[in-house]
TrEMBL record:
Its EC number is 3.2.1.23. Residues 726-842 form the Beta galactosidase small chain/ domain. InterPro entries: B-gal_small/dom_5, Bact_Beta-galactosidase, Beta-gal/glucu_dom_sf, Gal_mutarotase_sf_dom, Galactose-bd-like_sf, GH, GH-type_carb-bd, Glyco_hydro_2. Keywords: Calcium, Glycosidase, Hydrolase, Signal. Its cofactor is Ca(2+). Residues 189-287 form the Glycoside hydrolase family 2 immunoglobulin-like beta-sandwich domain. One of its GO terms (molecular function) is carbohydrate binding. It catalyses: Hydrolysis of terminal non-reducing beta-D-galactose residues in beta-D-galactosides. This is beta-galactosidase. Belongs to the glycosyl hydrolase 2 family.
């Protein structure tokens, strides 16, 4: 029995080895990414740690390993850097490979690479950083001893057009062997290239180039679970034939899309003398891409709205050397924002990124490098063919881009079509080309040419530039609703996905974004989520919930729209949840349930019915969550079920046992009650100081009205029902804004202000107070959170009780600690402030009050568009807030939500005065 088992094992091993021998083998000489690297010998000619032989991990960019100099593309002085990296690595090869073809493959080297094996050139110097290339080194190898691989890498190219396309862009410039290196072991008769065209109709075509003399090619298609689909099909070939075309038709295949990324595998076998000598496998998807002039871009017969983002291949500690895990993380983050597309800016990505887009479902715009400059035609043709051979069969790729922003070589457009069997559309980002207008950073109201009033398809390949906290979610709602409604809009691509912050070994491992050049991300260098992440997630949700105010008549019915392209909402799922908090911010009750998914086809509207309990209105908020067919959350919408006035009534205490004492001096009302001493200026109504038994509370110097006249005057006081009331007098000419303080025996204080904004157009309106940030520890509040908002970025937040520790975080800068503390926070009901020694609470019965917490730091912005606008003071209670601009657009040019607030002039309509009520508790019980 033992002997039989051993025989069976050896036989199985023989057949496994035979099977492997028929397939291409890959043996890595380097690691596979930044999570698995192999040390090679290294010598850097200039900069840090130069002129000495040492070790470096491969793949890597040498700057990130402490060598050479860090260069950003705008660094004019260093664009012609002479830095070179010299690499050495020894390896052995199996004697069994002697009769095979051995290719040495580099997936990416920055940028000129001279390769030697055992002192002899492997082939011509390769120029161009982002493209896989190979050499046949079979005749240069020693099969009985170690082999020496030497690579000389120039950071900048000897070809000026390569530098124009790659080395002078708005991004970090690195050097090195930054993608994997491997040996490809092939039989002498083998397939060199497979090009697949699999249409939504089920028509399958493949063009194969092969080496050596075979007599037949056979193909079998398999599903992702390994099941054979249809019958195998084949083509006889003559000994001299080097190209063959295969075709078949699969009945009713499952189609590939970003929503349902169904993949198949085609297995091709080459026969020589009626024996399989080489087998190759290619993943693909059935899908059709077409451009219909003056109409749209269609995938599988459905007009698409691309919800896209630009992405650099980047990681802060390793530069352009990434890993499959990073690719998975990035695609999952994009899909978590409900994106369906990504643009490869501004070069082809790692192979594993495209694999992940294929398997998880993300449309890809793949781009030949070019940034205001382009490759000349000879080298551009070579690099384009390398890109095509490397990327062509990925079903995720639906569009090719020929360079960026003027970096287009028109001679290459025809070569895209010649090389691409699928004839996917080619665009020129920033130009009108091929019937698609892609102009970057147009203003919302840009209504000339080929945008709002044009006749061409509109698809900006960059819009809403995300420098720091501007752009991205700020302005997106206005843009997207316009894009969604415009039949000629094909969507667009935000700039960009992640902050490109480099960990500088020469600066104590601090993270450098080259000032404002690379702080453009929705997420930080290590994928920290900014507020725009959640705004985009809501705005781009494929399930759109109509706005709904929950009142006592609410019957559980919500209106929604299916903005999917291929998914019926009955394939999704929904839940509801009710939640309630006590006056201390502690959750005290919750209840939830499932919702029957409605039968709503793509682009149609309908309802969902929530089966809520009869006492639903005793809770504070209703949450509704939608999930995609894979149980991934699309978004959770929150609907407050109680108004601020109802919550305030639970907080406020007016009764007390102590009588209110007041003393008036030349300029002050000094009030005492319930261990409090309150100083109010009797000429301006300003709270100058408030103290309790623990000392002075760091909150004063308010209310200061902005933007409006602080003309409170002619103060009087009275006692009424045991309360002290201090109020100003109304005078239409000089004191038309009024305030009233009410001090209760309990120690609670009420402030009521009636005011008129100073201008018809205002940046913001509300009341300011002083509270030194040096004293602030944290805030807990009920409202929308936890991120700050802008007038043109309200979406993405959730109603609840949030606690935020004080921080000085600024978006796009170290330490990337989010959410930021400073800024505007929406729909405040109450706030509890913790300072160094005191706590105090502010409550409002009014709706739509914004809590302003300090002022974010000034940002470097040479274009003067980002433009942070905040009131004076430290803590404010606002009824209108400012928007935020982008690198390329002032806030008012990002759409109506970015414009200033508009209020009626009181002289024209005195009933339009704003009113705001605040209650303060300084008692610290």
């Amino acid at each position: 029995m033992i002997r039989k088992k051993k025989s069976f094992f050896l036989a199985a091993l023989f057949f496994v080895n035979l099977s492997l021998a028929q397939e291409s083998q890959r043996v890595y000489l380097s690691g596979t990414g930044n999570d698995k690297q192999v040390e090679w010998e290294f010598y850097c000619t200039e900069g840090n740690n130069a002129r000495k032989w040492t070790k470096i991990p491969v793949p890597s960019n040498w700057e990130l390993e402490g060598f050479g100099r860090y260069n950003y593309g705008f660094d004019k002085a260093k664009k012609i850097s002479k830095e070179q990296g010299l690499y050495k690595h020894t390896f052995r090869v199996s004697p069994s490979w002697k009769n095979k073809q051995i290719n040495l493959v580099f997936e990416g080297v920055m940028t000129d690479a001279e390769v030697k094996i055992n002192g002899k050139l492997a082939g011509p110097i390769h120029q161009g950083a982002y493209y896989a290339f190979k050499y046949d080194i079979s005749k240069l190898l020693r099969y009985d001893k170690e082999n020496l691989l030497e690579v000389k890498v120039a950071k900048h190219s000897a070809d000026s057009s390569v530098n124009a396309a790659e080395r002078q862009g708005d991004f970090w410039l690195f050097g090195g062997i930054f993608r994997p290196v491997w040996l490809e072991i092939l039989p002498t008769v083998h397939i060199e290239r497979v090009s697949i065209d699999a249409q939504a109709s089920g028509d399958f075509k493949a063009k194969l180039l092969f080496h050596g003399k075979g007599n037949k090619i056979v193909c079998q298609i398999y599903s992702s679970d390994g099941k054979a689909i249809g019958q195998s099909f084949s083509q006889d070939i003559s000994p001299e034939q080097k190209e063959v075309n295969l075709q078949t038709t699969i009945a009713a295949p499952s189609l590939w899309s970003s929503e349902f990324p169904t993949l198949y595998e085609a297995v091709f076998e080459v026969y020589a003398k009626n024996k399989v000598v080489h087998r190759i496998k290619k993943r693909f998807g059935f899908r059709t891409v077409e451009v219909r002039a003056r109409d749209g871009i269609y995938v599988n017969g459905v007009k698409m709205k691309f919800k896209g983002v630009n992405r650099h291949s980047f990681w802060p500690t390793t530069g352009r050397t990434t890993s499959k895990q990073i690719s998975i993380q990035d695609v999952e983050l994009m899909k978590a924002m409900n994106m369906n597309a990504v643009r490869m800016s501004h070069y082809p990505p790692d192979d594993h990124f495209l694999d992940v887009c294929d398997s998880l479902g993300l449309f890809v715009m793949d781009e030949l490098a070019g940034w205001h400059g382009h490759y000349d035609t000879p080298i551009g043709t070579k690099l384009l063919k390398e890109m095509m051979m490397h990327d062509e069969n990925h079903p995720s790729i639906v569009i090719w881009a020929n360079g960026n922003e003027g970096g287009h070589n028109f001679d290459l457009d025809s070569i895209f079509l010649q090389e691409d069997m699928q004839k996917r559309p080619v665009i020129h980002p920033w130009q009108l080309f091929g019937g698609i207008e892609t102009q970057h950073y147009r203003e919302y109201n840009y209504g000339i040419g080929n945008y709002n009033n044009g006749r061409e398809i509109v698809m900006p390949t960059e819009f809403l530039h995300g420098m720091y906290d501007g752009g991205h979610g700020a302005g997106l709602e206005d843009y997207w609703e316009h894009m969604w409604a415009d039949p000629l809009s094909a969507g667009g691509f935000l700039w960009d996905f992640a902050d490109q912050g480099v960990v500088r070994k020469d600066k104590k491992d601090s993270i450098d974004t080259d000032g404002n050049h690379a702080a453009d991300g929705i997420v930080g260098p290590h994928r920290e989520k900014e507020g725009s992440f959640y705004a985009i997630k809501e705005i781009w949700s494929p399930i759109f919930l109509e706005r709904k105010e929950i009142t006592s008549t609410f019957n559980g019915l919500l209106r929604l729209e299916n903005r999917y392209a291929f998914t019926n909402l009955n394939q999704c799922s929904f839940t509801w949840k009710l939640k309630k908090w006590d006056i201390h911010g502690e959750a005290i009750d919750s209840l939830g349930g499932l919702v029957k998914a409605p039968d709503i086809k793509p682009f149609e509207k309908g309802n969902i019915q929530l089966d809520l309990p009869s006492n639903w209105n005793i809770f504070n908020v209703l949450y509704v969550t939608a999930y995609d067919p894979y149980r991934k959350e699309l978004f959770t919408w929150s609907f407050p079920t109680t108004r601020p006035k109802e919550i305030a009534e639970n907080f406020i205490q007016t009764d007390g046992n102590q009588a209110i004492q007041m003393e008036e001096t030349d300029s002050l009302y000094i009030i005492q009650t319930n261990d409090l001493t309150i100083h109010i200026n009797n000429r301006t109504g300003i709270l100058q100081k408030v103290s309790n038994g623990k000392g002075d509370i760091p909150f004063n110097n308010g209310p200061i009205l902005q933007q409006g006249e602080n003309n409170f005057g002619k103060f009087t006081y009275r006692k009424e029902n045991g309360h002290l009331i201090i109020n100003s007098s109304f005078d239409k000419k000089s004191s038309y804004n009024t305030l009233e303080w009410t001090i209760y025996p309990s120690g609670w204080i009420k402030l009521f202000v009636r005011y008129f904004p100073g201008d018809y157009f205002t940046d913001f309106v509300g009341l300011n107070f002083s509270s030194p940030k040096e004293q602030m520890l944290s805030v807990q509040y009920m409202g929308m959170g936890p991120y700050r908002v802008w007038k043109n970025r309200i979406k993405g937040q959730t109603f609840g009780v949030w606690t935020k520790a004080y921080n000085d975080s600024e978006t796009g800068e170290a330490p990337w600690l989010y959410p930021e503390f400073k800024g505007y926070h929406a729909n405040m009901y109450w706030s509890l402030f913790q300072t160094k020694g005191h706590s105090f609470k502010v409550v409002t019965p009014d709706e739509d009050v914004f809590l302003r917490l300090y002022t974010p730091a000034h940002k470097e912005d040479p274009w003067k568009n980002y433009d942070l606008v905040f009131p004076t003071g430290d803590i404010s209670f606002m009824q209108g807030i400012s928007g935020i601009g982008t690198k390329t657009q002032k806030r008012e040019n990002t759409g109506p939500m970015g414009m200033k607030n508009i209020f009626y002039d009181y002289e024209k309509d005195p009933t339009r005065a704003k009113e705001l009520t605040l209650y303060f508790d300084f008692t610290e019980k």
